[in-house]
Design a protein that fits this description.
This protein is mainly β. About 0% of the residues lie in helices and about 45% in strands. The chain has no helices and 4 strands. It is elongated and about 50 Å long.
């Protein structure tokens, strides 16, 4: 028998399976057009990706982040 005062156990919590999907956020330097896509190996912040289709400016990676997908 243990006194409740000295019991160190906590509530039982069920674990959730979490998958994290990585994404890359791109933005044009000139017109500020933005897009989000799945992360590709070799992506890094400030990397110049391509030319903007609407204004011919430079598109750069501005953010890399993950979103949690719970099951």
């Amino acid at each position: 028998y243990r006194c409740r005062k000295h019991f160190r156990g906590g509530p039982v919590m069920r674990s959730k399976i979490e998958n994290i999907e990585a994404y890359t956020f791109e933005q044009c330097d000139s017109c500020k057009e933005q897009s989000k896509r799945k992360f590709c190996t070799g992506d890094y912040v400030f990397k110049e990706i391509s030319k903007c289709s609407s204004c011919n400016g430079k598109i750069r990676i501005t953010k890399i982040f993950g979103e949690v997908l719970t099951q």
